[in-house]
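Changelog-adjacent note: as of this version, every example in the card shows the full chain rather than a window. The one below runs 260 residues end to end.
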Amino acid sequence: MPAKIAILAAKTQKAQNTTGFLRKSIKDEPIDKADIIITIGGDGFMLQTLHQIIDKSSYHQQKIYGINRGSYGFLLNHFDTQKDDIFEILENAEAHILYPLQLTATDKHGKTHTAYAINEVSLFRRIAQIAKLKISIDGQVRLRELWCDGIILATPAGSTAYNYAAYGPIVPLDSKTLCLTPLAPFRPPRWRGALLPHKSKVTIEVLESEKRPVSAVADNVEITDVIKIDVHLNYDIPLTLLFNPDADLKERVLSQQFSL
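Full-length structure tokens:
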């Protein structure tokens, strides 16, 4: 039985043009009825789609194939409307399963917030004064006081994004590793972060939170005035992305380490 396909597209002209082309040969199903979701746009639009899937547990078995009509397109694929057959591509595409980070943040009012991140969870200072953070891994204090502008906890897929821009390491997708990377660390001297086992539960407490307020960000969701966050990979939410065989996600992560 042929796969049912839903098409989601950004509002840009390039994305809409590709959508019109695909709809000539594809019956566009509602997203909740589809086996495969085609997203057309940039990485930001792909992240929006993935978060939409996270929020609907009934969507977790769906596969997502992204067509790049943005700029970089790390989570997306090249697709030429003049040469490529979308059905042949989907049949031969390689699947990679990603799991999101789950953030549980407590703010200064005692309210608890939950958010998810495909790439990274970050903490940022909100004012001119430096942030002071206490870091625990699996319940054990590893760093009693970090002075910094903030800190990033990135997935392997996210290691090539903001983490890399902050001089954090790029790690292979199958490394079963999380990247903990500080932003402008001041004390302790020369601490440049850590690589953590993928099943680690990371707790970060904000010290002197009234004097030094901090925000937590999960991808593009911001929570202000946090005093504590707990973060771990949620293996109950599989996200299956499809990639062209000649440029799968493992190859992209590897090649990124040698790009200039």
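Structural remarks: The mean pLDDT is 92.
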